[in-house]
Amino acid sequence: MAAQAFELGVRPGFLARADLLVDYKQDVLAVPAGSVGMGQQHYVMVIDENNELVRRAVSTGILRGDWREILGGLERGDRIVSSNPLDLAEGDLVRVVELADSEA
Length: 104
Known about the structure:
1 helix, 27% strand, mainly beta, three-stranded antiparallel sheet, 104 residues
């Protein structure tokens, strides 16, 4: 078998590049991975209508780069704190800052 590979032009030390589709998912809810607290249960800090933090348990799926899939516990449109929740407490008041559009 090794002899066949040499006949096709493959040599030791050659490099190859391949694009592989490992796991493609559509319509996935994902959050920054650092926003998910890891305790006995995974959780995020949700910002309620009064700008208070509420700790909410979530079930998580795969981790891809800086994003973690959320399988349950959050809905599209829920506002969460995108940074590490370990230094936050339920009931803390937060100020939501909207970034201005650079093209405006």
